[in-house]
Amino acid sequence: MNREQYNSAPPIPGSKKVWFLNGDLVRIYHFNRSNGIMSVYNIIKDQVESCLVTDFKRNRERAYTVGETAILVNRHKKYMPSLMKRGVIPEPMGAQKGGERGWQVRCYYSESQVRDIRDILATYHIGRPRKDKLVTNDITPSPQELTRRMGDGILTYTRTEDGRFVPVWSESI
Q1: What mean pLDDT do residues 99-124 have?
Q2: Distance from C-alpha of 110 to C-alpha of 44, rounded to nearest angstrom
Q3: Nearest to 112, CA basis, from 4, 23, 7, 12
């Protein structure tokens, strides 16, 4: 996917049912709006925990599947497991007790992990090594582009004389 297609694609909001809360994968179990208290099922610890709604909203991070993460960092989803095996990027957290991954078990990355993966892949060279040891990598999105694709900001581009699109303004929502 070239840069123009990447930037014109709609944002990827992440999972609507699963979030990361303090490093653990959780799902909403019960929501009591009148008292401002909610119960979340901690998938990793296999237990139900209570917390304030305000604390949940302040500390939660969106969860992205491996396929969604691949789209966000502009790679193919079949390329991600080879990066994990080689130790280039961290392993995702499985949606079962203890965070184990397995056959037909969904695996998730948090927002901060997706940003870390983008930073890792931005320094990862594509193609044959260069004689001057510089990194050639023009498919990894910029941090502003990644933020926009996650649905957190607005990014405006202008077209240069040679046909490239250059970001000129960004806003955090």
Answers
A1: 90
A2: 14
A3: 23
Query: Which residues make Cβ contacts (< 8 Å) with residue 70, sequence separation at least 6?
Result: 76, 77, 79, 80
Q: Residue 168: which region, alpha, beta or left (left: phi > 0; alpha: psi -120 to 50)?
A: alpha
With 0-12 / 13-18 / 19 or more C-beta atoms within 10 angstroms meaning exposed / middle / buried, residue 57 is exposed
Q: Which residues contact 22 (CB under 8 A, 6 or more apart)?
A: 59
Total residue length of the chain: 173
User: Region 84-106: what's the mean pLDDT?
Assistant: 88
Q: What is the pLDDT of residue 129?
A: 84
Extract the tokens encoding 42. Answer: 């901690």
- Token reading at 93: 């957290």
CA torsion sign, 89 to 96 to 42 to 60?
Answer: positive
Ramachandran quadrant class, 53 (left: phi over 0; alpha: psi -120 to 50; beta: rest):
alpha
Q: Using an 8 Å Cβ cutoff, are 20 and 61 in contact?
A: yes
Write the pLDDT tens digit of every residue in 66-83. Answer: 999 999 999 999 999 999
State how far the Cα of 98 lies from the Cα of 117, in Å rounded to an integer. Answer: 22
> What pLDDT was estimated at residue 95?
87
User: Model pTM?
Assistant: 0.83
